[in-house]
Amino acid sequence: MPDPTFPRRGDDRGLAAPGRIKEIASAANPIVKDIRQLAQKRHREETGLFLVEGLKLVLDGLESGWELKTLVVSKAALQGGSEVLTRVVSRAVAHGADVVEASAKVLEAIARRDNPQSAIGVFRRQLAPLKGLTLAAGDVAVALDRVRDPGNLGTILRSVDAVGAKAVILIGDCVDPFAIETVRATMGSIFAVPVIRAKEGEFLAWRGGFSGQIVGTHMAGTVDYRTPDYHVGATLLLMGNEQAGLSDPLAQSCDRLVRIPQMGRADSLNLAVATGVMLFEARRGALTL
Ligand code: SAM
User: Fold this and answer.
1) 271 C-alpha vs ligand 1 centroid, how far in Å?
2) Whether the CB of 262 sits within 6 Å of ligand 1
3) Is 78 close to ligand 1, i.e. is its CB under 6 Å away?
4) 106 - beta bridge partners?
5) pTM of the model
6) Where does the record place the RNA 2-O ribose methyltransferase substrate binding domain (predicted)?
7) What mean pLDDT is predicted for residues 222-235?
């Protein structure tokens, strides 16, 4: 059934797979209400959709082949003649996405902040299956035990992307990788890095068949993090929860427990910083300027 609130206009523009364009001025509009609900994890889980703010990130998503369902753009910026915005609208329509030309009030309501970006995309999320993860010699992936902080997870996804690591496995009760704060912190890497979710038991079962090495990071680790050979086979870096570190079963599943030496008063590094240090060490041989 065609949606009467979203009349088709794409055909008028002669585009191959046209989406629909609609103007919305009121934050009370039901389409806006639906999009706003994506701030809540429950609604993201139910719909499989998530929000992406800003033209660059929306373009990253389109270029990475992710499904854009709805594009919300600033009507004022469009009328102001923003060329890049006009191009993104055309691409979104050609992709079959619905386009909402929105008032400043509507954009502020969706972004839940003043001075929001001129474009917000509603994308369909993608998660990869654990059993599909295969790592070749020299490959590196990261597994995170119960990561709780969206900024940490976003920063880690960005670092994983930056070093050419293959995937991030989220073990147990982790923050949603598609939370707006996480997506923001990834700076577009959400579209580049396969994300896998697994319960601890599933991960441990998978680990049984994994032929590479698992290098766990632990404050009680006795091995310097620069000691393991990261080039012989595949490596999975296992990182602990921000407060509790690695669970005992996960720590016991590691081939090695390494520590990053520290000086000064801090008793540990921030999780995202520690992951960055590990990633750049494990991928050192593969990175050149
Ligand atoms: N109180 C926690 C503990 O004792 O494990 C601190 C957790 S730390 C903030 C979060 C995670 O970052 C750790 O579980 C570990 O994976 C990693 N990490 C932080 N500093 C580290 C270090 N110096 N060496 C190895 N791993 C570190």
Assistant:
1) 6
2) yes
3) no
4) none
5) 0.92
6) 51-129
7) 96
Closest CA to 202 of 129, 125, 126, 127: 129
Pocket test for ligand 1, best of 237, 271, 277 (most atoms within 8 A of CB): 271
Which domains are present in the chain? 21-124 (3.30.1330.30), 130-282 (3.40.1280.10)
Over residues 159-168, mean pLDDT: 98
Expressed in angstroms and rounded, the spacing between residue 268 Cα and the centre of ligand 1 is 5
Amino acid identity, residue 34? D
Q: Kindly state the tokens that stand for 221.
A: 């680790």
| Model confidence band, residue 21 (pLDDT cutoffs 50, 70, 90) | confident
Mean pLDDT within 137-154: 98
CA of 238 to the centre of ligand 1 (A): 11
Dihedrals phi, psi of 282, to nearest 5 degrees: -70, -25
pLDDT more than 70, % of the chain: 93
C-alpha to C-alpha distance for 83 and 186, rounded to whole angstroms: 26
Return the amino acid letter for 217.
T
- With a 6 Å cutoff on the Cβ, whether 216 touches ligand 1 is no
Predicted confidence at residue 235, as pLDDT, reads 98
